[in-house]
Amino acid sequence: MSSSKPVSSEDIIGQKYDRCLADFLVKTGVGFSVGVVASVILFKRRTFPIALSTGFGAGAAYADCDRSFNPARIPGTRIIPASPSPSGTAPDEHKHQV
Amino acid sequence: MRYAKNSASRQVTSAFRRNAFGVSRRRFATETLTPPKKKPRIVRRIVLATTALTGTFYVGSAFLAFNNTDYYDFFSEHVPLGQSMLEYGEANHWDTMTVHSAVDYTVRTATSIKDFIVEKVNGAPTSVKEVKERVEKSAHDAKVTTIRTVEASKERVKDVAAHVRTNVQKEEDKLTGKAAAIAKHQSEQLVEGLSDLVRKAEEALAVKPDTPASDSDTPSKSPGTPSESATSRQHDVYEAPLPVGFEPPPGFSLPPPPKKEPPPPKYAELPLVAPAVSKLASSEPIISHLAGTIDNLASFLKSNPEAASRVTDVLDLAKNDLSTLAQRIESAKEEERKGLEAKLDEQTREYTLKLLETEMEAQDRLDNQEEEFRKLFDLRQSQLIQTYRQKLEEELKTQTDLINERLKNEVVAQGIELQRRWIREIKMRVEEERGGRLAKIDELSAQLKRIERVALDNSAYLDENIRVHALWSAIRGLSTSALSSPVRKPFREELRVVRHIAAAREDPVVAAALETLEASEVPDVGVEPFADLASWYTTSVAPKVSNVALVPDQDAGLLSHLASHLLSSFRFKRHGLVEGQDVLSVLSRAEYYLNEKDLDSAARELNQLKGTAKVLLHDWLEAARRRLEVEQALEVVHTQATLASLLVV
């Protein structure tokens, strides 16, 4: 997304994968580091804060990645198909507030 | 001129006459002087005899001539003075004289002679009688001349009148009567005037001789007998001319009677001398005295004839008286003679002058008349000629007009006919010509038109061909640059050229196709080559689409994507034209179509995909659609060009 060069349409999925991976790494690393710090400082060198924070980071990254793949999936909302979609036609998406 | 000539001739004649007068006068004077004195009786007798013989011969011849025509001719032709004698006789009507009248005449003459002798007993001087005779002769001559002139003039007048008449008769019948009447009238007038003149002259002449006769009456005692006969003859002669006017004018015979009347008184007067002389007594005292003495003597002698001896005194006295009287008479005679001569001359001159004048006048008048007649004749002739000419001209004009009109009509008719014929001929000729040259020309022109049409068609064909060719070239260029090029490149220039060429042909279909093509941005960008598209599909698009082939159309999250990606790698790859609505089948069919170089069908197949696959195929489909659009437009243009080229041929 940040790249100036327009990406070809067939490369959109791969790009999303790349970004999700990068986000994951960043967020898990951030969580891991935060856990380390917290364990060291607060928990006297206990391991659980490290694992917890790494999990948080990984979870956040996953959520973001999923949202990137399916932007219509917003928490609390659910998209219901209006009718059994006929083949060859673009699906009409109707957002219903849950 | 004529007048001058006449006057000259008249003068000559008058002079001659005067000379003759003079000579004769002289002779007679001598004669008068001689007889009583010298000459013997023999001479007198001879003279008397000869005169008597000649007189009888002439008178008898005249009478004989009047009775015998042969002798008349002989006498008038061969005997000198015969003609004049005859004329004189005719003038005195001798020819008509009968025996009785002759006897009467002779008796009268005898008595007159006797009376005359008685009267002239005293002897009137013969000279006086001779003078009288001469005067008479001259008067007679003058008369004769006048008559002659009158006759001549009359004849001339007649001639002229006849000439005029004939002329006029020739000229015009109407005029003749008038002219003749006028001429006759004129001639009559002239004759009358002349006769009057002659009468006057004769009267004058008659009166003149009388006066000397009356003068000489008184002393007529001494002369002898011989002169008496002469005087009687003279008297006769003198009497005769008076009726000379035997000419047509009838009034001329009247004058004689008054002249004949005087003699009777003379006879009555003769016995008494003194009373007759008493009239002259006042002027001539001697005569009265003498008369008285004579009367005395006579009475004395009557009373006593025997006392003649005593009369001597008286006779002496008378002789003296007579001598003085004779002298006086002589002088008076001379004077009288002279006066008479002068008068006669004057009168003759005057009358001749008058005569000539009248003659001249008549001549002039006649000339004038003739001139007038001639003029009138000329005028009439000219008028007649003019009228006839006019008539003739009119006739000619009408005739010529008629002829001209007829000719004109004929000419017009002929001209019309000829024109018709000519027109027909010309038409025929023209037709022939038309059948010949004009037809050829028509043919040539038709051929030329055909050629022209052919040329035009050809040119149009050529133009069309050229245009089609240009279009074809442009289309080829466009397709080459747009579709067949190995790389993608813009083709707006080529498109513009094609559009220009197509705009010239005004093809709505091409225009519409090219317009839609031009309106888009495709020409600027260009289209992907088919090879590129195919490789792009096979290398990148088809595997990636097959990776997401299992992703659901809706709510496809990360997990589904990951699962699809994983599972798709385990699926069997299908190839060829396979059945099935799933993504992999569609992809295989598209791949097959692409291998068959059927971009359109491939695009159609791929366009049926939904969801994520479609999103992934978006770019490629876009490129394929652009190319297909261009291809379609070019196809349309190509078809039109093909149609045009087909139409051209």
TrEMBL record, chain A:
Highest taxon of the lineage: Eukaryota
Pfam families, sorted: DUF543 (PF04418)
Matching InterPro entries: Mic10
Location within or outside the cell: Mitochondrion inner membrane
Topology in the lipid bilayer: Single-pass membrane protein
Cellular component terms per the entry's GO annotation: MICOS complex
Keywords for this protein: Membrane, Mitochondrion, Mitochondrion inner membrane, Transmembrane, Transmembrane helix
PANTHER family: MICOS COMPLEX SUBUNIT MIC10
Functional note: Component of the MICOS complex, a large protein complex of the mitochondrial inner membrane that plays crucial roles in the maintenance of crista junctions, inner membrane architecture, and formation of contact sites to the outer membrane.
Listed name of the protein: MICOS complex subunit MIC10
Organism listed in the record: Lentinula raphanica
Lineage summary: Eukaryota, Fungi, Dikarya, Basidiomycota, Agaricomycotina
TrEMBL record, chain B:
InterPro entries: MIC60 (IPR019133)
Transmembrane segment boundaries: 46-66
Organism expressing this protein natively: Lentinula raphanica
Oligomeric and partner information: Component of the mitochondrial contact site and cristae organizing system (MICOS) complex.
Family recorded in the similarity comment: Belongs to the MICOS complex subunit Mic60 family.
Ranges of Polar residues composition bias in the record: 213-232
Annotated protein name in UniProt: MICOS complex subunit MIC60
UniProt-annotated location(s): Mitochondrion inner membrane
Region (Disordered): 205-267
